[in-house]
Amino acid sequence: MMNVAVMGYGTIGSGVVEILEQNKDIIARQTGDTVNVKYILDLREFPGTPIEKKIVHDFSVIEKDPEVSMVIETMGGLNPAYPFVKASLQAGKHVATSNKALVAAYGTELLKIAEENQVNFLFEASVGGGIPIIRPLYTSLAGEQIEEITGILNGTTNYILTKMDKAGETFEEALSKAQELGYAERNPEADVEGHDTCRKIAILTALASGHEVNYEHIYTEGITNITDVDFRYADALGTSVKLFGSSRISDQGVHAFVAPVMIGKDHPLYSVNDVYNGILVKGNMLGTSMFYGSGAGKLPTASAVVADIIEALKNPGHHVKMGWDGNRLNISAMDSVSFRYFVRIKGIAAKRLAEAEAAFGKVEVTELDHMDEFAVMTEVMTEEEYHLRAKKLSGIRQRIRAEI
Amino acid sequence: MMNVAVMGYGTIGSGVVEILEQNKDIIARQTGDTVNVKYILDLREFPGTPIEKKIVHDFSVIEKDPEVSMVIETMGGLNPAYPFVKASLQAGKHVATSNKALVAAYGTELLKIAEENQVNFLFEASVGGGIPIIRPLYTSLAGEQIEEITGILNGTTNYILTKMDKAGETFEEALSKAQELGYAERNPEADVEGHDTCRKIAILTALASGHEVNYEHIYTEGITNITDVDFRYADALGTSVKLFGSSRISDQGVHAFVAPVMIGKDHPLYSVNDVYNGILVKGNMLGTSMFYGSGAGKLPTASAVVADIIEALKNPGHHVKMGWDGNRLNISAMDSVSFRYFVRIKGIAAKRLAEAEAAFGKVEVTELDHMDEFAVMTEVMTEEEYHLRAKKLSGIRQRIRAEI
Q1: What is the dihedral of CA B392, B394, B398, B402, to 10 degrees?
Q2: For position A180, which CATH number holds?
Q3: Tell me: the pLDDT tens digits for B55-66?
């Protein structure tokens, strides 16, 4: 029997306790061992509930109990999650966390401490909710040179963009629906400005490259500038717009960015809709793989935490080699990344197309009825080149990167 | 350094040797160890090539060499793969295989021998080519009660069906194109009759349930009866037809089958085309996940074998708990499985719809121009009920199960 402590009895933490109870027979069959939740660290008391007697308010009870061999961190945030997780690893306990902020900020240090103490620091639930992606990267794809990871990694923004695409809603309408349904926070900034996706692609890039990634070096643009008019063009073009977190790794360097990207129907991530996540991985031998599933939600995310508990159960006293080293990856400037560009321009094509072509070169034109504007799709060029060329043209209303 | 022996230097075996060489730095970084191919067992000699000196013709050289700690079986077939693999495990060597026939026929015994000898019998490459699916099932999804696995598991038939769907080809035309391109064997029976898919869904079902599955108990129907006319209706209906291997596991029993199934555009497997494979997994906590990638081909399949080598490298002297026990799963008869049915009927709807409704109850009708027939889509009913009802109606030309 393995004793664990759950820190933070919120949505994910209570989900973990629920799954450990409901699926205990399956877990026992798969691992040959059982899991006992000995402590739950929370500020609240939960009187009259089955967990009442497990509640503790003092982390040192967990830290000092040698019977606790694993700590589950589902508090979120950096403080006190960071000192508690660090102390747990130093006390020789495995840690599983769903906390992407913690992993993105302190992953390198925590992985090192885990290795020094021959325990595991596991974080499957930090990216892609219930989608198995962290573990496949360090097991199934460990022999691959990963050339690209591109993901729809945030369910909130994907829900909003899907509503704008399929139901013709404005950004504001779709956001308030997401808030009503509990998919978006009242302060939605971390999601809609791309910060959540940024931390997730940083973690995936570090895993794929084997080196530390500073998420602050990743160009990050959210979806707040995407409008219902953009989706009317997308509809006419047979495309959609998705918020991508993406990194491309080659001998020439590493590009990484978070931004809305226009894609066509043949893109493997085109049909990832609503709150679902999808992650595309290209390996030098494997070619393209795609992983799809529930990117958020209580039970799917808790299920990923439970998978980490099972990994620790299967490896008693054994440090599983994974993660990245402290040599920080050099992320190339966004200026050097290439895209096609969807550009909306004031005026009518009949009058202004020559100007647009003088600026951008060969373009494909789209016009909608009854609009005082038109749109062009450029050829592939770097961001730097785009900016130089765009300066030559007045009346640009919108620019969306495209991979078509 | 871990010494391995590769048995069978065909497409997959040579791919494994190629990846171990080309990605050796990545493998060393990820595992902290290196792999040396000490022997290659093959009937041929390969004079003047870099592998010339590694070639052996006598398995006992491998079996008796204590330096060889892992054997890679990429010969295919049951004989001599089965006795060689068994002897390797008994000699205390890990085994990785790409051989689905071997795993489906002797998996239970070989898993037991591996456990007794504290080594690993690994077979990621036996299902889904390069798609990580076996390992996620016994790691990431190990805490889930798996309720359904449905996969497009055979690239050859998916290529044929895609050509029939998108290019309007007949089965015969698409098959000969697949043969020209090397996607189909000259004797395509194992693929087009569904036998290959049957072994793969048997392996996945055993892993998901934890119990042995006799693949001969799985109802298996191939794609040889699917015609270009069916796809004309599918086009009119906005659907497609895919060869599914599927199992549904519940307290009421286990259903498993291989058959062509008509699905709509909103099905997660709808956009899995050409030689790609896709596998949908439903867990009781996780909900639906989907795994997509190259289901066949030299390097993707070899990459899955290399992932197994890495797993063994990371677990020296450690048996990883996975697989299934010898309690054979009871697969319910196909008669009790429920579908909707797409049925093509001789005559015109104006004259015969009442008859069709008398037989099947409420149906949706589709008519194509200039045809002496029409099609109906029934409500959901069991196979048994379908057969009873279909007896009441003359002139049924086609019946395809539908999940719409």
Answers
A1: -30
A2: 3.30.360.10
A3: 999 999 999 999
